[in-house]
Amino acid sequence: MIQQRANFDWLLKDLAEGVPQTRHVVVLSSDGLCMAQHGTERDTAERLAAACAGLQSLAAAVAAEVPHSDGRMRMVVIEITGGFFYLMAAGERAYLAVLADEGVDAGLMGLRMRDLVARIGEHLSSPPRNDEQRA
After folding, report:
1. Tell me: the pLDDT tens digits for 73-111?
2. Is 25 within a domain?
3. Which residue, among 70, 125, 122, has the nearest Cα to 93 in the 3D structure?
4. Cβ of 119: how many Cβ atoms within 10 Å?
5. What digits encode the pLDDT tens for the residues 57-78?
């Protein structure tokens, strides 16, 4: 939940330091709001979170075309020049995103992200937003 933001700092730090070549770690809501971050400035984390919202929506649209799929995105990995980007469903309406350098152990990163989500996934959620909550 958003009010628990500070409680995630050490967990995100543990992921970042446990996988060499990790650059940025961000927890975001499905609507692209940064909930927690490690290894990045706030502006960068917010840009990554916003981009991830579009990416998870695109991945869900692709998943909807797979027979017997529930249409939900579980994990997206993008190899880019100079590194890798990972986006993983991490709780209800929440995602874990990691940007890592080219030398990262991709298998280790996926495993550590899955472990983190399994340990605290139920706490990595974003409450639904509606017009009453914004007022």
Report:
1. 889 999 999 999 999 998 888 899 999 999 999 999 999
2. yes
3. 125
4. 11
5. 888 888 888 888 887 788 999 9
Residue 49 located in a structural domain = yes
Number of domains into which the chain is organized: 1
Residues 71, 64 contacting (CB under 8 angstroms): yes
pLDDT value, residue 129: 58
If you search the block for the tokens 């330091």, which residue do you land on? Answer: 17
Domain of 107 in residue numbering reads as: 2-128
Contact 89, 83 (CB under 8 A): no
Q: Which of 86, 24, 92 is nearest to 55 (CA)?
A: 86
71 and 88 Cβ atoms separated by less than 8 Å: no
Q: What is the CATH number of the domain that holds 24?
A: 3.30.450.30
Q: Say whether 40 sits in a helix, a strand or coil.
A: coil
Which residue in this structure is represented by tokens 């469903």? Answer: 89
Compute the distance between CA of residue 31 and CA of residue 38 in angstroms, rounded to an integer: 20
Confidence of residue 123 (pLDDT cuts 50, 70, 90): low
In a domain, 59, yes or no: yes
E runs forming strands in 39-82: 75-80
